[in-house]
Known about the structure:
By secondary structure, the protein is of the alpha+beta class. The protein contains five helices and five strands; from the N terminus they run αβαααββββα. The longest helix is centred in the last third of the chain and has 28 residues, at 120-147. 14% of the residues are buried.
Amino acid sequence: MTKVGGEGAQGAFCSQTGLALEKMPKGPEFAKRYPEKFNAPVQIYSPYSYDAVHVLVGAMVRAGSTDPAKYLPEIRNTSLDGVSGRIEFDEKGDLRQGAVTVYQVVNGKHEVREIVGGSPIAKAAAAVQAGVDAAKQAGDSAAKALSTQP
């Protein structure tokens, strides 16, 4: 959005299913280890793909089979602390703690403004990060003000 919109994207809001990597419970560790292992940057859905493989393998292990007819029913029995957070499914097959992240474009970057849904841990992490970001911004403003004084 920022590449196409340029300056016109300033202040715009957008959303994405899931959490930003840095807001995921195991996101920072994943962000460090992924490039080391694959010699490539983390792509937006890499943590979800990683978690999905673990969900499928866990279902296969519980079913004792790689036959989809046998392991697919086991997916609903998943209870996993993945990179993206706690993974459990409801009776319809939807994530119990699915989230949507709302971003705003500020100075050409997407900043998290709100997390809708998701686990309490993810919301707490977002609140802490928002506090850190606000403190950094206040510190930067204070430093700039001091540097302009005679």
